[in-house]
Design a protein that fits this description.
Blueprint: E1 2-6, H1 10-16, H2 21-41, E2 46-53, H3 61-84, E3 88-92, H4 100-113, E4 120-127, H5 129-145, H6 156-161, E5 173-176, E6 195-198, H7 208-219, H8 231-240
Helix pairs in contact: 1-2, 2-3, 3-4
The structure holds farnesyl diphosphate.
Farnesyl diphosphate binds at residues 7-12, 25, 28-29, 32, 51, 56, 67, 70-71, 74, 123, 178, 203.
Length: 241
């Protein structure tokens, strides 16, 4: 199972407590640690977290710097632990305009953990679904221009294979905290059949109980993938026959 999380509401959590926004993001990192632990314990196979969107560059310079700093600190402090827990780390998003030292840390995190077989933690950093699709279109157009691909041979599978998430299955389930009910450029292509759960709590308050409850709600859903019979009903009739 692949769970995506839009970790929203750090700023509002902090404002409600009269704290600086950075404190909200710090608590957000703690909630992320907890979510990773819970995902491992609940046998989630892929967890994708939206930690910095391509739109986040328009925030005040100091906040952008704080978020970059938090990611660096997260990798520096948590990578060894994630590796010990057999977690495979993947980063999706645009790396070209990140600082050289951050790019190097992201590469190292992926290289160190690439053979791990436990939870795959996908960090969407400097990520935007439209940007990801645009760069896939550019790669495909280059193949067409080079004469190695015919336009009519372009399939959804080829598009998917040119996304950052190429070898990652689509998310089954996307959670967004803080009461907002939108996708905000997260996994646009991949979310075609995802179920959504929107939670009123802010991200720093997301804990194991909230994760379990959200998963319970997902499991109760009737996923039909455009079909008339649900996957669940088909499974029941298969076991009955
Ligand atoms: C949304 O809160 C959260 C973000 C923009 C960043 C998410 C980041 C973290 C959980 C911490 C950083 C972790 C890593 C690994 C970098 P918001 O600031 O949009 O909150 P608001 O909508 O209430 O202002």
């Amino acid at each position: 199972m692949h769970v995506g999380i839009i970790m929203d509401g750090n700023g509002r959590w902090a404002a409600a407590k009269g704290l600086p926004r950075l404190e909200g993001h710090r608590r957000g990192v703690e909630a992320l640690r907890k979510a990773v632990r819970s995902a491992i314990e609940m046998s989630v196979e892929y967890l994708t977290v939206y930690s910095f969107s391509t739109e986040n560059w328009s925030r005040p310079m100091q906040e952008v710097a704080d978020l970059m700093g938090l990611l660096k600190r997260f990798i520096r402090n948590d990578l060894a632990d994630l590796h010990r827990q057999n977690v495979r780390v993947r980063i999706i998003g645009e790396r070209a305009n990140l600082s050289a030292d951050l790019r190097q840390m992201l590469d190292e995190a992926e290289q160190l953990t690439h053979a791990n077989t436990g939870l795959c933690l996908v960090v969407a950093f400097n990520y935007g679904g439209r940007q990801e699709l645009t760069s896939a279109v550019q790669k495909i157009a280059a193949q067409v221009q080079a004469g190695t691909l015919l336009p009519q041979a372009i399939t959804p599978e080829i598009i998917a294979a040119n996304l950052d998430s190429a070898d990652i299955p689509d998310p089954d389930f996307i959670i967004r905290t803080s009461g907002e009910q939108r996708l905000s450029n997260f996994l646009l292509w991949q979310a075609a059949y995802a179920e959504f759960v929107f939670l009123p709590m802010h991200w720093p308050d997301f804990d194991r109980a909230a994760f379990e409850a959200a998963l319970g709600e997902f499991r109760a859903r009737d996923r039909r993938f455009g079909n008339v019979t649900s996957a669940k009903a088909a499974a029941v009739s298969r076991t009955a026959s």
